[in-house]
Request: fold
Amino acid sequence: MPRTVTLRQIETFKALIESGTVSKAAQVLNISQPAASKLMMHLESDTGLKLFDRHKNRLTPTSQGLRLYEEVDRIFAGMRQVESAIAYIRREDQARLAAGVIPALAGAFVQGSAMNMLKRNPNVYCSFQSLSSHWILEAVLTRKLDVGLVSSFIDNPNVVIEPLPEHPLICIMPIGHPLAQKAVIRPEDLNGIAFVAFSNASTTGQKVEGIFKNYRVDANVVLTADVSPTVCQFVAAGLGISLVHPLFIADMEGRVVSRPFEPTTTLGLSLCFVRDTRNARLIADFVEETLANAKRLVERINQSAPDRMPPTLSVDGRDRPFA
Reply:
């Protein structure tokens, strides 16, 4: 009479499929290799399925093994959802802040804002979602999110807008790039230069495309990406230059060179939240830290510029030279 399949057998089977070898699966489960092998032999015997082909001491999943893994993975995914639900129920009485952030700022910038906010509110549970401005606004209006950081203009009487100071786009380039010798980058400087672009679906991409059209730039776009970390990483790697908002390079200082770009092209960023929200105090703290974080970052960029350069990044909405 077949024995009942055990949870330990299933755990070992899942670990073996995902790690590729019995020895690695044994390490994951903190058991011996012979024990793992025995569990797999018993699983095949108990189920009557041929789960692996054995060739030269290597195990390769059969079609039956892969089908079983799909079901096992689905069950374990359900278990993870149960664990998340348990954790959520435990936190019901804990203060929470749910924020939406455009992908361009979902990395180092929002991390800095959140960490400073959590220092002031150590017992708060935070959740962040990286979404487009449209979906962030919809989630804020339906109160699925407490606050959002967006790049598009919002005209809605039910939403409070806290604009970040406007900053002009800057030109970033790899260290040692020939354009780094210039104090200011202009549209004609971009002709034929390898350029890493944002997709036209993004606000930044649309701004840059407008510059190319208005000033008849013969752009040599070598790569297009949807999010700023990808753009900045390829620039740092030497693929080309790009035009970005200064907050996009929050974690790239020392890896790229930045120069002001003229004519000034601003990209407005705003924090948004609904009126009469239950989380007014936490939202206020997050807004305050985000504004302060933006100011600190731009000031660092200003201070890192060579003395001979006269860039005009602004920390208060007015163009002025670096101090």
Notes: The first helix runs from residue 7 to 19. The mean pLDDT is 85. The two ends are 83 Å apart (CA to CA).
